[in-house]
Design goal:
mainly alpha
């Protein structure tokens, strides 16, 4: 015979569910309207929850943004780590980079809401009242550069540890700029898949990396 959950347990489950509904709705709406353009009234309409539910879970709109960014960052990098499991050990640097970046492009396509909001916050000062969210933005950008460097270093591993590290240090900022540009293009130039942009970025980075390796 199944036991009926205690009232407190049911309340806790409803609370967790409503908190997640708020986070999901805030991510959707803020990725389109931005932080400044998202009102609590719009979120209440989106979720069907009263405004009091928002302030029960989050002290302020800034606190909600911080939670949205933290959740999005965890999900994004978890997806990156999963996508890059069992990388190839054979092949040329170009082939390895294509492998890494194609999978990175798939993560891009599946994380559009988070990346759109991230870039809005990077390019504007509209979330100045939410310092925790801005710290998350900085952390994500730093981690993204480190992850890009890891992909480059792994792709050029046959050149030796020192040369691979030199290439990664030189090209990681370029790789990040290319990734950002590919995301913007994906949003504004419909019809071309992320894989096409990622292949071109991989080819460009491979050529530059080979030139750095040759120059010693």
């Amino acid at each position: 015979m199944t036991e009926t959950p205690a009232p407190e347990a049911r309340t806790n489950r409803r609370g967790r569910r409503s908190r997640q509904e708020i986070l999901d709705a805030a991510a959707r709406v803020m990725s389109v309207r931005g932080y400044a353009g998202t009102s609590m009234s719009a979120l209440a309409k989106e979720t069907g929850l009263p405004k009091s539910a928002f302030y029960h879970h989050f002290e302020s709109k800034a606190g909600l943004l911080s939670a949205v960014m933290e959740q999005g960052a965890h999900a994004f990098f978890d997806a990156m780590r999963e996508a890059h499991r069992n990388p190839p050990q054979d092949g040329t640097p170009r082939e390895r980079l294509r492998w890494y970046l194609r999978r990175t492009g798939e993560v891009m396509e599946n994380g559009e809401e988070f990346l759109r909001l991230l870039l809005v916050l990077v390019m504007s000062r509209e979330a100045a009242e939410a310092p925790e969210a801005l710290r998350t933005v900085i952390t994500v950008r730093d981690e993204g550069r480190a992850y890009m460097a890891h992909m480059i270093r792994s792709s050029f591993q046959d050149e030796g540890e020192e040369t691979a590290a030199k290439i990664a240090e030189a090209l990681a900022p370029f790789g990040m700029a290319g990734y950002d540009g590919a995301f913007v293009a994906l949003q504004s130039e419909g019809g071309r898949p992320a894989s096409a942009w990622m292949d071109q970025l991989a080819d460009a980075m491979a050529a530059l990396g080979e030139a750095i390796a040759k120059a010693g």
